[in-house]
Amino acid sequence: MTDPAACNTSRRFFLGNGLAGIALANLLRRDSSATEPAWSAPDGRPHFPAKAKSVIWLFMNGGVSHMESFDPKPMLNRYAGKTISQTPFAEVQNPDKLAIERLVVPDANGNQRNTLYPMQIGFRRAGESGIEISDWFPHLARNVDRLAIIRSMWTTDSNHGAQSQFHSGRHRNDGDFPNLGAWVHYGLGSLNDNLPQFISMGKREYWNARDGHYLGPAHDAVPLRVDPGKPLDFARPERPLPAAVADTGGELIATLNRLRADQFPGDQALTARIAAYELAFRMQSSIPEIFDFAQETAATQRLYGLEQKETAAFGSQLLAARRLVERGVRFVQIQHGGGGAGAWDAHGGLRANHAKNAFAVDQPIGALLEDLDQRGMLAETMVVFATEFGRTPGSQGSDGRDHHIFGFSVWMAGGGLKQGTVHGATDEIGFHAVQDRHYVTDIHATILHLLGLDSRRLELPQRKRLDIDHGQVIDDIIA
Predict the structure, then answer these.
(1) CA-CA distance, 236 to 332, in Å (whole number)?
(2) Which site from 118, 211, 450, 477 is most exposed, i.e. has the minimal number of CB atoms within 10 Å?
């Protein structure tokens, strides 16, 4: 009988020589982990007919100002320099019941940012829908008839842990909860057995660095970088191996895995690990091919802005995302401006900050929407543009805006969503979401619904969730 310890040693030897397609550290953590869930995962089939197959989740770290992107507030210009208490809200048609509260409510961090700060960029109506979009986003304006903009989001974490809150629905102080991508990964089966179904690109901070949590590390995203030579750590041998040698090694690992599985037939965690190792081996060829942009036409590369230094990095990630989804990846999570508080965190110099960041993402996102659409993929692919919170209508310092959790904007496109529509509203200065208010998990519920999943049927009996964790489907933006 083969010694089990020898099996483990051999497996690690071959993995160390390049037969890992997922980061080796992550695989070995799984291999030694006792935290694999004991419950049975879903069968991978949607709970009801789905309208979408995949999600490309674009997250702008730091907090995008809604008043300078997707929610114009001309009252800020009219009363710039006045305090909120000096602004005659009675002039506004249909004043809401929160008007008096607005005079005394501080910003999310408890500071009084009461001096109104004018919009730092103009807005124009675009498309047949006539939706107003900031002049910082001309490529998105060209695609506005593909968007469903939600202008009435709110959250509760007033600092950048709200990045994790938008992904998971829970405040960091509540403990660790799986994020949306992990739930999708947990609930749906694979569309391509040679690729992972949940991928992350871009820098992530420690408060937003994990995904699966109590679902287990098997549902964490696989981190990739846009580097054809090294898209993933440990994805290539330390030295070149002839194909015959690699095939022999793969066959040996499969034999060792079968011996181990026969010895422990009821070990679900072992079965999951073996599947991960086998996927790792297949990814050696599938992943580098994804990032070989030489297969794309010069026109496509220009469309994504790969020839410009300002747009090349994000454009490359979005082109890779299209190629991943095209080959059957379920959920691609891309973080823009990660690191520290996030690149969009404009406490000062908002005009320069947002102009720079918008220039970096606008053309690539416009390209992604157009590319997906002309390939017939947008109908089954949801694209989401999200950020952890908005920014205050009042100024911080001379030329910045503070964090703002009471009202902000996100948008979605494709995958069964209405096109060219605006849902919800903030008040006349962009302080409170006042019409069709939506907590961040309403976005989750809508995405899961369009993927054919009911979060309550995914819920684990050992981990009962609050009703707000599940969110409410935003029916008004579904086609």
Answers:
(1) 23
(2) 118
Calpha distance 193→178 (Å, rounded): 23
135: number of Cβ within 10 Å: 13
- Region of 404 (left: φ > 0; alpha: ψ -120 to 50; beta: rest) is beta
List the one residue out of 479, 458, 455, 453 whose CA is nearest residue 468. Answer: 455
- Sign of the CA dihedral 353, 356, 362, 367? negative
* Confidence (pTM): 0.85
The string of DSSP letters for 366-379 reads HHHHHHHHHTT-GG
Calpha distance 105→113 (Å, rounded): 10
Q: What is the pLDDT of residues 296-328, one digit of tens each?
A: 999 999 999 999 999 999 999 999 999 999 999
- Cβ of 104: how many Cβ atoms within 10 Å? 10
pLDDT digits (tens, 9 = 90+) for 91-108: 444 444 444 344 445 555
All CATH 3.40.720 domain ranges of the chain, comma separated, are 44-204+299-477
Rounded Cα distance between 100 and 104, Å, is 8
In 3D space, the residue among 254, 309, 306 whose CA is nearest the CA of residue 279 turns out to be: 254
Helix segments in 79-220, DSSP class H = 99-102, 138-142, 162-168, 180-187
- Position 28: which residue type? L
How far apart CA 135 and CA 63 sit, in angstroms, is 18
CATH number of 44-204+299-477: 3.40.720
H-helix segments, 42-179: 74-78, 99-102, 138-142, 162-168
Contact 401, 391 (CB under 8 A): yes
Helices H, strands E: what count in the chain?
15, 15
Nearest CA to 305 out of 119, 139, 64 is that of: 139
